[in-house]
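Hey there, shall we discuss this one?
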Amino acid sequence: MYLDEQWNHSLQENNFLPGPDFPGMKDYLVVGKTCCYVDCTCYLKDTYNLSLFFLFFLILLFLKTQKHFQDEPLNLAVILSECLQEEKKVLASASEKQGCGSPAVQQKWKELDRGVNELKRQISEVKKEVKSLEFLYENLDYVQKTWQNKVEQDSGLAQSNAAVKEGCLKQANFIMQTKEMVLQQIVDILNQAEQIVAALTDVELPEWKRRQQLACIGGPVDTSLDHLEEWFTAVADVLIQVNQELQKLQDQSKKYNSPDASSFPRETENFTLSLLTKLLANALVVDKQPIMSSLPQRPQILKTGVRFTAAVR
């Protein structure tokens, strides 16, 4: 009866061409009790999807068990109903733990979004501070050079030379304090970026790979890479901008003969490059697992000497 209903449903949807031969399966089950079970299961596994294979297995199990309940078919129906209810509970529990729509996962993703957005905001502030430092350096350099020329041309200004030098010294100290503040902001960005990179490469990416494995065996899980791609791209962009701002600070120190040029924190730049390297090393993943054209619904099942396709991202 079930196979007849499936066949009628396929006819109504005009989906009988790619679908399974339900009438043939019915005849096979009713008439061919003595035929080989292994041949039929192999045929189903090679021709149709895994769900149909389990359906056929359940039908055979039902036929085998039916003879024990010929006098009490109601008991068989009750047992089957209880088994199906328990199966639904197990599937619902597994989907809640593994699915991306659970409250815990959504909360974790919101925290990652906030962390990435905070990195973007902080690097934007650093870029403004570095630009203001360039302006302060230019003003100080202009005052020092023009005042020196004026003193050489007019000896009467020599008395004011000490006051001008004191003002320039105060300006230089302010520049150094501002630069130290910018460097501290960069260190804070890198510390926060380190936590996000660890969360992406050590937690989120392995969890996505696990979901992909479950999807390959028919699990109803989300294998989208959109969130990971967005986070990886945003953090990598922030780290690249950090490296650029560090290079600008180094160029400023050399250009204006800053006294802190020799003590420039090289370890900060090395730390930035190490985070960027770790992020990029884990950025390339297999988006679609290898599949054969003859079995598109069953990835990771390959035969020797047969062509297959895969996609990286």
